[in-house]
Amino acid sequence: xxxxxxxxxxxxxxxxxxxxxxxxxxxxxxxxxxxxxxxxxxxxxxxxxxxxxxxxxxxxxxxxxxxxxxxxxxxxxxxxxxxxxxxxxxxxxxxxxxxxxxxxxxxxxxxxxxxxxxxxxxxxxxxxxxxxxxxxxxxxxxxxxxxxxxxxxxxxxxxxxxxxxxxxxxxxxxxxxxxxxxxxxxxxxxxxxxxxxxxxxxxxxxxxxxxxxxxxxxxxxxxxxxxxxxxx
Length: 232
Fold this sequence. Notes:
By secondary structure, the chain is mainly alpha-helical. The protein contains 7 helices and no strands. The chain has helices at residues 8-39, 45-54, 56-84, 89-120, 131-169, 175-197, 210-225. Helix 5 (131-169) runs antiparallel to helix 6. The radius of gyration is 20 Å and the shape is elongated. The mean pLDDT is 91.
């Protein structure tokens, strides 16, 4: 049976989940904004390859940073399931399933982050390709990585919708957190859906990712600082 939401053990779970959530946000933003966005030049394979070769260690740090985020994701999925199963065990388990599925996709997708390092590292069998072809392949795998990430976000969007509903129905966190997480879920689904259905308009809806940033950051900070309160 799940611990009562006011129990010290459950409050500890909540704070650990909050800490890990903040770690996920920091690591994911570092990998995507500082590392990949700072090195990948859309449509320019030569410049992208040059950036990666010049800052190879930073590129590898970005991969490790993503790994830390995804490992934390697994723990957060379990802890949120424990915290929210008193509200609805079935929906809480469904939410965990969505998050774990997305995390599995992210993990496999890291191979597309690693591929440019293998290509640009000059392995012997790559001698059949000229330099331009190798650089083009490196950029291709990075673009594939971006699409793989968005595929995972479809499942993560489902997770956020379910978690948002559960938070709203619960008595131990403010209902506004549930609303923000629902908006986060719609943000992920709109962003990824637009990329897959109308790729030319993906940039135009990039602003929707502000909603997930606000919602997840608010939830992480609340869990760290406030934990869970006793139900009324």
